[in-house]
């Protein structure tokens, strides 16, 4: 699919493809939270509560951390809402502070309130939320379709017209491809996966084949790889992260990004007065698709994006 006779190879030495993250959040206990610290994967009850009180009297009660326990499902309330795919962490904070979340019948306004997702009853606006079965699919988007849930105009088409089950099952895209672009889109109802793939801190590499109307010279390739100033998703000026660009053939490039700004590649080429005439994303992390599978979707596992590339996968036509 990619021309192996690469004429130019410009790589930035800056940046990193690693992913960072903080697995724990801090919680204060005692009067502020009104709840003892989780212990052994569960909050203290009965005699345990008395221990906490004794600890306060003896000068204890120092802040402790709530680390997510995958086996017991213990974490801070705002993280629990995200893990349960109710909403993003930011939206979860607004729900909690707005008094719209109850745990075991009590309205909780503390973002750091420790909960056990497998045992505590969590309700948002009166509706109980439970763990959903997570789904993950890869879709080879054709050009001419928007990635968003709702079309921007009456005549606009979205990818959900091609994969209607994805909308019915609440599968959201991890990042977007603009209407004119085509290629790999990952969709899921797992907010943590979506954030890992396309969140603001994500450094997962995305690979594109780009065709332009004018070639870039060596100096422009160097500048492109080092980062250029473009308009961000909110209209602000942003310098792009260092990236990789390779000249494959006349007016054909491979671009590798670890950033997710709206129409980023098109804006980066426009910086040099060059227009992108075709853009195909063929890989995210380790997961690849073939150009000939346009309109196909297939089920995937999260580790196929961050682990070894999938081989011989069966694709379903839509």
Automatic annotation (TrEMBL):
Compositionally biased residues, Basic and acidic residues: 1-12, 37-57
GO biological process: enzyme-directed rRNA pseudouridine synthesis
SMART domains named in the record: S4 (SM00363)
All residue ranges annotated as the RNA-binding S4 domain in the record: 75-137
Keyword terms: Isomerase, RNA-binding
Gene3D superfamilies (alphabetical): Alpha-L RNA-binding motif, Pseudouridine synthase I, catalytic domain, N-terminal subdomain, RNA-binding S4 domain
UniProt keyword annotation of Isomerase present: yes
Keyword Isomerase set for record: yes
Residue numbers spanned by region Disordered: 1-63
A single GO molecular function term of this UniProt record: RNA binding
Name listed for the protein in its UniProt record: RNA-binding S4 domain-containing protein
High-level lineage: Bacteria, Candidatus Walliibacteriota
